[in-house]
Amino acid sequence: MDTIDAIGLLLGVIGLAITLWQLHKTRSAAEAAKESASQVVVSIQRFEAATKMHEVCARSRELLRVLHGRTLAPAAHAAFELRDAMARYGHDPHSQAVATTVEWKKAHGEAREIHERLETAALVNRIGADERAALLHSVARLHTEFTSMAAKAAANGVNDANT
């Protein structure tokens, strides 16, 4: 019986060692899966930030298009939609990768000013040629900034996905 006990003890120790080794492998795999999931979440958030920035860019393009029209109410509404899209994007944690807070506040201030000027003009349903030209130039300049930010946001998302 002593030999059988010794063999049983040896097999028990070997079994315990295998169990501990498997437990370590399982824990390492779980940690790797958790890290991978975290990276996927960040990639998705960056993709969403890029999508929101492209929405801001599309809103500024739409504002530029309707500002060329004769009626001012659609332009005022498009300016409101632009400000709304900007507000949603400005609170995105990944927006800092595209524009600094100072740049974003400046752009938001310009959009607010454009919107207010258009709302005022829409109320009286009149705008002078010089005022319309100034607004068109302001919107075009803002759209160019947003296009640059959208390209940067897309590049950030693509670079993140490739890492």
Outline the secondary-structure elements.
Elements lengths: L1 H66 L5 H18 L10 H24 L4 H33 L2
Task: Give an account of the 3D structure.
The protein has 4 helices and no strands. It has helices spanning 2-67, 73-90, 101-124, 129-161. The chain is rod-shaped. Keywords: Membrane, Transmembrane, Transmembrane helix.
Structural class by sheet pairing and helices? mainly alpha
CATH topology: Four Helix Bundle (Hemerythrin (Met), subunit A)
Instruction: Report the CATH C-level class.
Output: Mainly Alpha
Termini separation? 61 Å
Order of helices and strands: HHHH
Which band does the percent of strand residues land in?
under 5%
Taking all Cα atoms into account, the compactness measure Rg is 29 Å
Helix content: over 70%
Helix count?
4
Largest sheet: none
Shape: rod-shaped
Mean pLDDT rating: 85
Keywords: Membrane, Transmembrane, Transmembrane helix
Protein name: DUF2489 domain-containing protein
Transmembrane segments: 6-24
Organism: Zoogloea oleivorans
Short description:
This is DUF2489 domain-containing protein. This protein is mainly alpha-helical. Helices cover 87% and strands 0% of the residues.
What are the key terms here?
Four Helix Bundle (Hemerythrin (Met), subunit A), single chain, DUF2489 domain-containing protein, mainly alpha, transmembrane, membrane, rod-shaped, 4 helices, 163 residues, transmembrane helix
